[in-house]
C-alpha cells in the first residue's frame, strides 16, 4: 500500500529523529523550561528576524489554535475564519469549547478577503452580538492554495482598520514558503500578523509547532493558556530539540529542504495527472492535491493507494485528496500516475 | 414621541397587570415551585392538547434558548440555525458560551429548509467535526415571516431522518398563530417538534416564556439547566401568574387577543405604506415590518417616531424596522402614515 | 399556612408595586436603555456618594454574580469564596460554567478572613494552577452574619496586597446595613471593594439587583456580559422603576424601611425563641435565623408554618431556617413563638 | 547537576526509543487509527484481563483527565477530588474550563475516603447545587502514597451506593503496582473503577497515556472528546508504538521493570535519608519523596542537585520533592545522601 493519505503518515524526518536520539539521555527541566526550547525559540526569532515576540513550543495544531484564540479574545469576542478553515471543519468545535464563536465565511478558493471580513463585521451591531476581534487564516489554506503578499497585506490592513488581530495558522507553512507561486518571505509574513505558527508535525517532526506571538496582551501569561488548553508537554524539550534540528541552517535548513521536497513530489504528481487529463476539485499550489476521479477509478486506486475522499460523490465523480510527505518518493508518485493511466485510458 | 421600536416597549397588558396586582400579597414557595406555575403549566398542556411534556416558566428568551440547547446536546454536538436566527445575531454568543457551535446557514426569507439542513450536515464528517444534533428555527422568524405547515412538516421529517431534534423559538408565537397567512395550529406545531416555547415578553407580559419539552432526555433534570443558565426567577410564581392571565380562555384568551391586535395594527401599517408606494426590505407576515426609506425621510421620521434601523444605509436608502405592540393604536399608525405621505409626496 | 420560607415569598412591597402600575403604559427603549434605569443609576450613585462607577440594573442575583465574575477574570483566573457562599452552594456551578474555579474555603461563621485568603493564595504556584484574582464575599453572609468594618477593611487590604479584586454580593445588603450590630455605612462598604450590588429581590422588589462596578477593566464592555450571561431584561426599565421607588428618600427610603422592618420582626422572633430556650445552629445578626428543633417539634411546626430545613438531621435534631420578609407581621411571629412554646413546654 | 526533579526529566527508556526508531519509516493512518494503536489497545486489554472496555491512546495526562471527565458528566455534574489531586492543583483549572466543578476535599495523606465522599455529597441539596457524579483519585497519589485494596474497595462501594462513577488517574500507576506496600493487582484495580489510565510519560515513554473506559455512556463517541480536548495526536501511532514496547511481556514487561527500578532507587534514597535522621513532610510509598531540610541545607544541595521545593518555608524548614526516574542511578542517589550527610553532620 502506497500512502498519499497525509503529510503525517510517517514518523520523523531522519535529521529530526537523529536529534531526538542524541539528546535522549539528557536531564532537563520539564514543560518547555529547558535549554533546547530556549535555543529553539532563539532560532525562531533569528529565522524571522524579530525579537519582540514570545515563542512557545506547542504539542500540536489544535491546542495551538485554541490556546492562542482563548488568550487573544475576551469572552464575548469572536474569530472570523473561512468556512474551510481548520478551526471550523477539523477541530470538533474546540474553539467554541472555550466559549468563542467562529464566524464562518464562504471563502474564495479557501481564502478570506477584506470584503468577507467587512461582511462578517457588518453582522455586528452592539452588545447583542459577539464582537469579531480576530481573523484566522491558514497559509497555505486547507485546500492547498496560498495567499499572495498583496492578499496578506490587504487582510492585514483591513484588520488594523477594524481594530482586529490577525493570526496565521502555519501548520503547513513550510510548503507555502517554498512553493513556486509564493512571493512572501517569512519575515514579511511575520510583519503582517499579530501571531502565527511554524508547523512541525506536517513538516518532518514527530509533532510540535512553534507559536510566535507579537501582540503583547495575548502574550501576557500565555503559559497559563498552554497548560489549560492541553498544549504543554511534560517532556517539552522534545519539541525544542526537533525545532533545533529543523531550523538549523536558516534558508538551507531541514525545515526548508523537507518542504521543498514535498512540493517537488506534489508538483510531479500534479503535472502527471494534468497530462493524463485529470480534472481537479480545487486549485492547489502546495503539497495537497484534489483530483476528481470516477467512482470506479477511485475504488480501483484504493486497492493499492491509501488516500482520503475529500467530498461526497456527485454524479458518479469523487473528489479525493492526495498529500505528499517528507518520505514520498518519485517511484511512489510514478506508480500512482501509471495506475491512473491504466485505469483511464 | 410615538414608539414602533419593539413589541416590548410598554409594561404589561392590563389583564396581566391586574393578575399580578391581585396575587401580589400571596405567599408561595420560590423558583417556580408554586401553585400558579403549576396551574399555568397545566393550562399550557391543555392549550396544546398534550400531557407528555415538561413545561417550565422561564424568565426570558435568551436563557430559555441557552438552557434548552445546553440540555439537549452533548458537548461535541452543534445546533443548526438560520444566519438571521436570534441565537446567532442577538444573544452575544450565549449558546457558544456553553461550548456549542451554532452552524449558521443563509436562510430563505429568514427560514431554514430541508436542503439547508442537508448542506449543514454534509459539513460533518467524523469526530473531527462537531455533530449537528439540533435544528433551531423561530416561528415567526426574526424577519417576520412564518413557516407554513408544509414547511414545518418537511423540516420535522428531515430532522427525524437525520436523528436530529427540532426546537422552535416562539418568542413571538402569538402573532404567528394569529396572522392571516398561518395554516398551523399550536397543536400541530407542538406535534412537529421536540421542544418549543410560548413567548410572553413580546405578547403582553412583563417578562416570561413558557417552555415545553417533549424530548425526555432533554427534560431530564432540566431544572439544573434553568438555574445554571440563569433562567430561574426567585419569585418564579410571577411568570405563572402572568401565563394564567394570558392563557385563560383558550382561543378566546388574552394571549390570542393581544396577538391578533398586534397583527391588525401591523396590517393597517403595512397596507398604508404599500398604498404610499413604500418598498420593503423583506416580506413580513406578522407584526414586524421592514420598510425602506431614503436617509432624509428616515431622519425626518425619527423626529416624531422611535424605531430601529435594521441594516446599514446603502445607496442613500435605509431599511428600518417598525413593530406594533399590545398598546399600539390606530391613531399612532395613522400618524406615521400621514407623516410618510407628507415626506414622500 | 404562615411563611418563614424566604424573603422572596410575596410579590413586591406596595411602594414598588405602585411605581410599576404608575409607569406601566409608558413607552421606553428596551434592555435598560431608558430614563428610569438612568435615573435609578444616578440615585444609586448619590446613595453611595460616588460617581466613578458603572451601575447596571440586573435581573437577578445569579446572573449578576456570574456576569461580574466573568467580566473581572481572565480565563485562567479563579475566585476565592467561603464554602457557604451563594456562588458555591446555590448557583448550580454557574460560575464554573463560565470556566472559572471557585476556590472554596471553610469560613468562620460564614465569613472569609485575611488568613483564609492567604491559605487559598498559597495553593497557587505558577501556570499549573489557576490564579486567584477575585475575592467573593456576601454582606450579610448566607448564614445571616455580618462583617464588621474592621473585618471588611482587613479583607480589602489583603486583596490590595495580593493584587486581587474584592466583590461583595449584596443580595440582602439592606438588612446588613440596618441591623443592630452593623458599623459600616454603604459609602464605607463601597470604598472598600471593586464591585458590589444592592439587592432588590430580597428587599421588596419583584426582582432586580443594582450592580455597581468601580474597577474600570471589569466595567469596560460590561453590557456584553449582561446579555451573554442572561442578566439583561428586555423590559429592563422595570428594574429601574423599582429601584427608583426603593431608593427615593435616601436614608428614609423604602429600601431602608423595608430592611429595618425585616430585621425588627427577625429580632422579635430571635429573642422570643431564645426566651424559650431554643438553641441555634449558627449566630445570625440579620433576618435569617437558624434554630434547631427536635425532629418531632419540627414536624409539628410544619403543619402550620412553611420553612426550610437547613441541614441534615443529626441525633434527632434538625436545623431549620426562618426568614422574615417585607410582609411578615408581629402576629405571624407570635403565632410561631406560641406554637414552639406549646410544643416544647 | 544531578536531577531528582521529576520522573520525566529524560527522554524515553531505551526499549521505547528503540521501538520508535524501528517503526519510524512506516506509513500508517493518523489519529490513532493504525495497527500499532490497535495492537497496544489489545495488549492493554490482555494486561488487565478485560475486553469490555474502550482503550484510547492519549497524548498526556491533562487531556486524558479533561476528556474523560467531560465525557462522563452532564454539564451540571461535578467531580469530587482530594485537594492535592492533580486536577485540582496542577492543571490550571482545565476541568473547570469544561464547565465542571472540582469539589476539593482535604484528603488523608493525599487520599479520599468514603467519609469524605459522603461529606461532599452532603453539600448537594437539589437543582441549586452541582450534582457530584464522579470521584477522581490517583494511584499513587500526588504525594506518593497508595490506596490499599481495602481502601479502593470501600471507595468503589461508596460510589456505587451514591450512583457515582470512579475514575483513577494512573499517571504513575507503574510505581503503585510495583511498590512494596501494594496489595492490589491491575486486574483488581480495573474491576473497582469505571475508568482509569496507565501512565506512560512518567514510566519511560516520551509521552502518552493509555486510557481504559468501562462505563459505556462515557465510552460512547469518546473520540469526539479526545479531539475536542486536545488529547488526539496527529501521528497517534507513536503512542501505540510506545505502549507496545512498554507492555510486551506482561509482568516481565519494560513497564513493570522501569517502575520497579524507580521504586528501588527511591527506596534506597528514602532509607538513606532516614538513616541520616531526615524528617519527611509526608509519607510516600513510591518514587516521590518529600524530605524536609533547613533552608541552608536546601540551598547548599541546590548547587549540585536539581529538585522541586514542595511547600513554602516554615520556621526555617523547607519541604522539597525528590523524584527518581527510569535513568536514576545508585551513584546519583549515593551522591545525594553523601552531600546531605556532610551538610547535616
What would your notes on this structure say?
With 345 residues, chain A is of the alpha/beta class. In chain A, 41% of the residues lie in helices and 17% in strands. Chain A contains 14 helices and 14 strands. Chain A has helices spanning 14-23, 35-48, 61-72, 86-89, 114-122, 149-161, 173-178, 186-192, 216-219, 222-228, 237-247, 254-275, 295-301, 330-344; strands at residues 2-3, 54-58, 77-82, 102-105, 131-138, 165-169, 195-199, 209-213, 279-280, 288-289, 291-294, 305-306, 308-309, 317-323. In chain A, the strands form three sheets. A seven-stranded mixed β-sheet of chain A has the order 2-8-7-6-5-3-4, with helices on both faces. In chain A, strands 9, 10, 11, 13 and 14 form a five-stranded antiparallel β-sheet that branches. In chain A, helix 2 runs parallel beside helix 11 and helix 12 packs parallel to helix 14. At the A-D interface, strand 1, helix 1, helix 3 and helix 10 of A face strand 1, helix 1, helix 3 and helix 10 of D.
